[in-house]
């Protein structure tokens, strides 16, 4: 790749729009925030506007920003597959009475956390020079298992040009290949247009002898398997020299760190992580250093500075780490980081004042998402694209002032300001959601991607 081509490569953050059925049902086992807020009243309109405002502020700051649509919810088709019949209203009413937990699951707006949408490998890292996509199967929880088919259609609708993009099938939806997407994957490099090393973090091993010294969590499930991470790497054509597979610390999972992006975040050559992120911290760093072409810049936050409780409650490590043209980095943190004295002190005295590229911290209010267990990093899917690849995107998905205005007006027209779990059985909510999503696909110009549009 020429110097001119290299300079045109950019990371685009594709944020998921918060869906019209955004609610607090406490569905995610092991996600402390989700479980602790279950049953509370949500504000879908506020959630969507908070997400859009974060996207707009980053676009205004010069970062490339994209948008991904929410899923069709409630997923009445899933309820019909489970034996509920009749009109849509009858299906919802019966599910509400007989299996309220299923109704809550098929109404989940969890697709807003697009870090789980899939795993992406840039074209510079693969033999065929195309960007590779694998949607995550998310089989560890029923409400997220419902997402991959639509996710795949959305990704193929946007990244449609086969000259530039390659799409792979979802891994088998079995416990052995449990895949949670980019929430457990980080690409480290010098410049985006230069070859990178892919850090895959897993919670457990499904087959064979467990690696020496490894163990599994005792209280909460480990969602990502080593076998799933290895399979995605094979799909994308990554070699042993390009990959590092590290086990997440099981004690962190038991503390509520259900994905690695709740305890570590990397970008460029920088890996910001908590002392409890990896079971074999030293071995993980040594292997990264050995395989990276440029020096790794580890930024370690010790347990004595930020407790596991504070790390999970503040989502410090679920922040967005963004690269700037001058070599510095900006950290986008949720407002909850200011509410924890130890976390805010660490940001000021350790990160900003430390010997590392992080020179700026931006605080964003994403409370509606945070209460369901997703911070700034959960809300975005990172896709490294060349100028030609960006030009090959289909639809109207790269954020502009005009698109932001249109999306904000769309939210104002279609979203409710109050949604309690009992409201999920309202057939009018289902109808409102379909009308909104049909309009959204036209606004984004991505064609028919939802089941109700496909017939």
From TrEMBL:
Known role: Catalyzes the hydrolysis of N(2)-succinylarginine into N(2)-succinylornithine, ammonia and CO(2).
Catalyzed reaction equations: N(2)-succinyl-L-arginine + 2 H2O + 2 H(+) = N(2)-succinyl-L-ornithine + 2 NH4(+) + CO2
Keywords: Arginine metabolism, Hydrolase
Full protein name: N-succinylarginine dihydrolase
Biological or metabolic pathway of the protein: Amino-acid degradation; L-arginine degradation via AST pathway; L-glutamate and succinate from L-arginine: step 2/5
GO biological process: L-arginine catabolic process to L-glutamate; L-arginine catabolic process to succinate
Keyword Hydrolase: yes
Keyword Hydrolase in record: yes
Matching InterPro entries: AstB_sf, SuccinylArg_d-Hdrlase_AstB
Species of provenance: Vreelandella titanicae BH1
Subunit structure: Homodimer.
Protein family: Belongs to the succinylarginine dihydrolase family.
